[in-house]
Specification:
This protein has eight helices and ten strands. It has a six-stranded mixed beta sheet. Strands 2-1-4-5 form a four-stranded antiparallel beta sheet. Helix 7 links the parallel strand 7 and strand 8. Helix 6 packs parallel to helix 7. The chain starts with 5 loop residues before the first strand and ends with a strand. 38% of the residues are buried. The mean pLDDT is 93.
Amino acid sequence: MSENQLVIDMRGVTKDYDQGTVQVHALRGLDLQVRRGEFTAICGPSGSGKTTALNLIGALDTPTSGTVLLEGHDLTTLGRRELSHLRRDRIGFVFQAYNLVPVLTAFENAEMVLSLQGVATDERKEVVTKILEEVGLEGLEDRRPDELSGGQQQRVAIARAIASNPAVVLADEPTANVDSETADRLLSIMEKLNRERGITFLFSTHDPRVMERARRLVRIVDGRVADDEKRE
């Protein structure tokens, strides 16, 4: 694959946190490249740095040193406004706690990014209706989060994440708060979206079900890549 198919390019990334009088080295020279269309899981023990890595890729945090590139854009050189637009337009987020707006319906939550982008109402309706159908929420468009099960809420979060056709969907422990059957359904939905739409997925997980179904498994130990297994 050519260099322009790199979606994520992390080189020599370190991240240090001060916890009182103790300095925590969350990442210690992490190198990670993810290409367009991958279905990749980052795994590792608690405190290994996997969530920190996702936060840096998602421009939710900044590295202590090293470079983080998204589609060739060096996130460490961008201003606050540029980062905000990049997060809105090029990154989809799926969190373990769903992070839906409680007063909005499933449809309104799913169309949120498109609304922020200023997409016309008719186009938003067409795009979101199709996506909600793809994730199995047809007929539930008008329900608010508290009227949906955990698995259904996570499907809304997936729909919201892919609505703007982002460069990558970052999924941080997306199956942590659902049962096994629901987790399998969610993974099947994301696999289908990856296969049929070519959407790039990057997971942070300790769930064996996610690790088993990932086509690439990157193990992080003590803030560095310890193993990189490709299964394609």
